[in-house]
Please model this.
Amino acid sequence: MWMSVLMMNAILLVVTVLIIVADRFLVTYGDCTIRVQRGREAQEFTLRGGGTLLSALTDHGVAVQSSCGGKGTCGYCKCRVVSGGGQLLPTEELFMTRREKADGLRLACQVKVKGDVGVEIPDFLSIVRSMVAAKKFDARKRWRVTIR
Amino acid sequence: MSTFVGLVTVFIATLLTHNIALTYLLGMCPFISLSKRIETASGMGIAVIFVVVLTAALNWPIYNLILVPTHSELIYYITFIITIAASVQLLEMIMERFLPALQASFGIFLPLITVNCIVLAVSLFMIIREYGFLKSVVFALGSSVGWTMAIVVMAAINEKLRLIGDIPRGMRGPGIVMTSAGIIALAFLGFAGIVSL
Model:
């Protein structure tokens, strides 16, 4: 029995070391700059590439809607990736209409930061404020915001 | 010669009479969700072939050269899962670095396969049936090619069904896929008796 436990730990150790070494030497995207345009505000920050756009944004205080936590199942974290996002993935297609695809919308949780990325995010708060001010917002009605 | 005949028998059996998708109903999650378009289905199929063969080739020596001599057969389930997860992760990193075009064509399918039951099932079957190394690799290749064949056939049927477009509302989606899969499985029963494992 103790041999099994020992072997289990040994295998885990080898695998962990292998992945850490591979991560250190194979995944080297270097520093990537992310430019965020949110309504009228522009923001720019630099981070180490390799993670998802959603985690990069939330780590730097840019709140993006997401209820599944980046699993690609809720489809809330839509944003327009202006540059450096790569191709639309099959996992995103389910959540996109033809128009949204043409507009360059992506799910932030599915976009991997591999280089400099330019992204536009709808400023929901100011959109809602302006709708309330113009008395166009009715919480009882289903509503949606289209990014233009 | 008999070894060669044995290998061909295993290959044909896993492809037709013991098809992993249609006989054992394994890998049903991607089978249902990714069988809408032939292009997606074949992409997933190729990724499955790649990973199943690789993990079978890794798991066989781990079981027979490490676990059996140390009398640790008890932990083979969990060891296989760790090997599968780690090898998929490593494979993705290597492909991202050296073969970005191939990695882009696999897209999200490669990491998805880590939790696919076909991969674990093939490794478990080869241990339970006490196959040798070469037979295990051929078995893995046959099983994964058989699964790919099944999902591509399913996708082709789905594409045709969409063209017809008069599927009852309640049957759309997984309902029609499972019904069609059942009919294909019945058709594959016709191969029973050709070869056996």
Chain A has a mean pLDDT of 82. Strands of chain A lie at 31-38, 41-48, 78-83, 105-107, 117-121. The longest strand of chain A covers residues 31-38.
